[in-house]
């Protein structure tokens, strides 16, 4: 995986093979950030990265100037890798090792962008808990977005606060906002 743009542009990041992850492809990541670039100033954002995995999305935000980034993942190896990578690049990324749903139930951390990349084999019920908890606990700042990455075979358009979907190969990003 590589960082697409910003001060760390073209830097490659190699994650250990034993991590239970499926990093967002460079093509999908570049397309997502093109959408965000048209709406937000990255240096003004607060970002919450759920099911953070390798931290791929967070590194991209940090490279583009985002100073307030929090990653949540339940896997110790993922958290350790994110911390090591963020430290080596001197990126402003904080981490919390936690089950994402337990974190969302208790969190008061508000963000402009909440990005969630749960396992693609989640049930519809599990996917639906993400926007349910985010909006129930009012975790999005004004004009914020919840973005859930999922397989092209999953349809989240019936979930609370759904706005639109963008497809890139086998990946989809579903966008949710305060309506």
Automatic annotation (TrEMBL):
The record's keywords, sorted A to Z, are: Methyltransferase, Transferase
The molecular function terms of the Gene Ontology recorded here are: 16S rRNA (guanine(966)-N(2))-methyltransferase activity
Q: Which domain of life is it from?
A: Bacteria
Q: Which Pfam families match?
A: Cons_hypoth95
Q: What is its EC number?
A: 2.1.1.171
EC category: transferase
Q: Which NCBIfam families match?
A: 16S rRNA (guanine(966)-N(2))-methyltransferase RsmD
- The protein's name is 16S rRNA (Guanine(966)-N(2))-methyltransferase RsmD
